[in-house]
Amino acid sequence: MTNFIKNFWKDEEGATAIEYGLIAGLIAVAIIATVTTLGGQLDSIFQSISDKLPKKGTGGTGGTGTGTTG
């Protein structure tokens, strides 16, 4: 029984798995923080681009202007 406890105490395989799990968790937190921060900025960029595009039916450039397809 004492040998089992000594071997269990010296076994580092579980510790390595926990370390990898912690590293993966930290990477996930960093990715989420980055996406959250950039998400708002990207939304405003795409919104400004969308605002500059001509709206359907306002007589913008291109197309035939007849409102028909084909």
TrEMBL record:
InterPro entries attached to this UniProt entry: Flp_Fap
Q: Which domain of life is it from?
A: Bacteria
Q: Which species does this protein come from? A: Comamonas terrae
Q: What keywords would UniProt list here?
A: Membrane, Transmembrane, Transmembrane helix
Q: What is this protein called?
A: Flp family type IVb pilin
Listed Pfam families? Flp_Fap
Where does the chain cross the membrane? Answer: 20-40
